[in-house]
Amino acid sequence: MSKRNSWVRRITTLAALLAVLLVSSLALAAGRVQWSKTTVKETESKSWKIEVKIFLNKAPDTSLIPVKFEFSPLSYFERAMMDGDKLVERRVPLVGRQDIIEGVDIGFMDPGTGKIEKGTNFSFKITRAHGIEAGEYKVTVRDARNGQIIGSPTTLKLDGENEIIDRRAMVFADPKSKKKKEEAGDKQEDKKEETGDKEEKTEEAAEPKSEDPADTPPPDDKPAGEVKEKPGGCGCRVADSRGSSPEALTLGLLGLALLGARRNRARR
User: Are 48 and 77 in contact (CB under 8 A)?
Assistant: First the structure.
């Protein structure tokens, strides 16, 4: 009897433990969520349309209940321009990012019967204006009334084209600034040309005018090469040798020497 009682106690304890675990799991996940797609493409309006089916454990007391969709960023789809103007796309893991919360009201009333059901279909749009970008997110659906999680978290992939990041080693200067520099250089060259023209005009104005023949002094009446007679001289005149050549000067000196020699002989 003791052995049988012992087995009964063990089975009862195990059943109670299973019941506690079942109740706690139901309290933790109040219902379930069925996603229409876990990979959603971005539309032309820069938004993503989310479609889900939500099933609660029982029908709510009101037709509308507030629900929170918590988007936890997992990765970012980067588009980078590399050297050679090559566009590279890669998945960048994200850690420690703040959750993005979208609050909505979900209706559980059946339009046909007017009764409140425990399950419903729901769809809504998320946009980049709320900080959502193309990437991967862990999405948790939570009942805003009591904070209970509905279903289990799901990884959602949002396809789209994020802004291009320039990762090239060399970034060329702005064409506008280059154009401004060229215009400034042209202006400086124009100023230099104007300054040069002014200087040329000033030099031309400062050049002296040619002398008027009437202002030149009259030439001396005496010949430039005339030499006055000296006492005891021979009475001859020597032509001006300043304008003559070296050969003529030599011949003149030779003639004077011969003339002097003759006079010396005559005196003897």
Answer: no
